Amino acid sequence: MQQVTSTLAAIDYVIVVAYMVGMLAVGLYFAKYVHSTGDLLLAGRSLPFWAIGISIVASDIGAIDLISGSGGAYQYGIAQANFDWVGSMPALLIAAFVFVPYYWRAGVFTIPEFLGRRYNAGVQTIQALIWLSFMATNVAIMLWTSAVFLHEILGWPHELAIAITATIVGAYTVTGGLGAIVMTDVLQVVVMYVGAGALLVLSVWEAGGWHGMTDKILALGDKTQNFFTLLLPHDAPTPYPWTGIVFGLGLILSTAYFVGNQAVLQRALGARTEWDAKAGMVLAGLLKLMVPVLVFTPGLAAKAIYPDLERADQAVPTLVRELMPPGLTGLMFAAFFAAIMSSIDSYLNSCTTVFISDIYHPAYRRIAGRPLPDWHGLWLGRLLTAALIVTACFVAPLIAEFETIYVALQTLLSLFQGPTLAILLLGILWRRATRWGGLAGLVLGVMMTGVWTTLGDDLFPSERPFLFVSISSFLFTAGVTIVVSIFTRPEPPEKLRGLVYGDVVHDAGAQAILRERLDTP
C-alpha cells in the first residue's frame, strides 16, 4: 500500500488537541450528574427537543457518512443521497407522530422491552441479543472508518490508528451517560457542518465547478452514465436500483431504522416531555435534508479529481489531505474525530441500556429477588463499555472485506430490520398477534434473511441485494406471525391492555397499569 505522510501543520495539531481536550472536559463535566442507572441510560428524562434533534443527527451522520457515504457516492453516484432524502425524513415523521408518543407514554427503556411485554421473554431476549450484536459490530465499523481516515491523513498504520482511537474514545465514553453524549453532540454537529461545508466548496471548486465536475465524471466511460440519476433503473448493476430504494429502503429499512433503532430512540425516550420527544425527531429530519449536499457531493468531486483511487472509502481522506489548507485541515480532522466519538458513544450507551434492561436486570431480579442497585448498574455499564471497545478493535480489520463500509452497514441492518418491523407493527396494531406468533416470526424471519443474504446474487436482480432482502424478510415474517397467531391461543385482554397503540395513547387506566409494571418485578 502507498506510504502516506502526515499533512497536518502546527496550527492543525493545536486545533485538534484543543478540540479533543474541550470534548473531554464537557464529557467529564456532565458525568458528575450521573448518580443512578436512570441518569446513565436516559439522562434522567430531562433532554430538551433541540438537543435531541441535533444529537440524533450527530450520531446518525457521524463518521460512517463522512467517509463511507462519500465513498458510496464515489462508487455509485448520487443514488447514495436516497439514504437521507427517501430514507430519513419520511421515516422520522412517522416515528415522531406515531411511534415516539407511544414509546414515551408507555415508559419503556428499550424496544426489546416493549416486544417482551407484548409477546414474551423469548422475543425480548432474542431482540436484545440481535441489537447488541449489531451495535457492537457498528462500533467496529466506526473504528475501521477512523483507521482509513487516519492512515490517509497522518500515514498511521491501520492497527495503530484503531488502538489510538479506541483509547481516546474509551477514556471519554466510560465517564459519561446519555446526558454527556447529547450535550457534546451539539458542539460536534456545528464543527461537522462547518468542516464538511468547507470541504464541499474546495472540492467542487477544484473539480471545475458543478458543470466541470459532471463533465469529467461522464468522460470516464459507461460505468458513470447513471452517476447523476437519483433513481436508477431496476436492472442497474449497483446495490441501489429504484425498486429497492422505494420499496426496500423507503418502506422497510428506513422505517425500521427510525422506529426501532435503540441508539436513535434512546434520545427521544430521555426527553423531558412528549412534545420534546416529537419535536426532536422532526428537527433531526430537517437537519438531515442537508446531509447529502454536505457529505455526498465531495465524493462526486473526488471521482472527477482522483478517478483511480484504490478504494472508494479513500475519497474524503484524499480530498482533505490534498486540498484543505492549514487550519481547515485541523478543523476537518477535529470534525471527523468528533463524529467518531459521537457515534461510538451512542452505540456503546445503547448497548449498555439493552444489556442491563433486557438481559442482566431480568436475570438479576429472578435470582436475587430484588431490583438491580444503581451502583451495580453504573459499574456494570462502564465495564461493558470497556469490554466492547476492546473487542471491536479486533473485529474492525474484517470490515475491509466489504467493497464500501456503507454496504457493510446496510447489509448488517437488512439481516433483522425487516423481521423487527413486522412484529413491531403487528404487535402494536393487531390485538390477535400472539406470543408464539411473534416468536416464530422473529426466529424464522431472521433465519430466512440469512439464507437470502447468502444466496442473494442468484435470487435478486442487484449487487449486494440488501434492499430486496429487507422486503422479502418483512413479508415473510409478517406472514409467519399471522399464521401462527391464528392457530394459537389469543392473548388475554389484561395482558394487552396498555400495549396496543390506542390503549397507551388514550386510556388513563392503562397508564396506571404500565406504571405498576415498571415498579414491580
Could you name the key traits of this structure?
mainly alpha; 76% helix; 0% strand; Sodium/glucose cotransporter; 521 residues; 25 helices; single chain
Give a written overview of the molecule.
This protein has one domain (10-414): Up-down Bundle (Sodium/glucose cotransporter), CATH 1.20.1730.10. The N and C termini lie far apart (57 Å). The chain has 521 residues and is mostly helical. Helix 3 (49-76) crosses helix 7 (121-154) and helix 16 (328-368) packs across helix 17 (374-395). The chain has helices at 10-31, 37-42, 49-76, 82-85, 89-106, 111-118, 121-154, 158-173, 178-206, 209-218, 242-260, 262-269, 274-288, 291-305, 315-323, 328-368, 374-395, 405-414, 417-429, 435-454, 456-459, 466-486, 493-496, 501-506, 508-519.
CATH superfamily: Sodium/glucose cotransporter
Strand content: under 5%
The CATH architecture would be Up-down Bundle
End-to-end distance? 57 Å
Here the CATH topology equals: Sodium/glucose cotransporter
CATH class call: Mainly Alpha
Order of helices and strands: HHHHHHHHHHHHHHHHHHHHHHHHH
Q: What do the pLDDT scores average to?
A: 78
Indicate the percent of residues in helices: over 70%
Structural class: mainly alpha
Question: How many H/I helices?
Answer: 25
Radius of gyration: 23 Å
Main β-sheet description? none
Count of separate structural domains: 1
**How would the global form be characterised?**
globular
> How many β-strand runs?
0
Stretches where pLDDT falls below 50 for ≥5 residues?
none
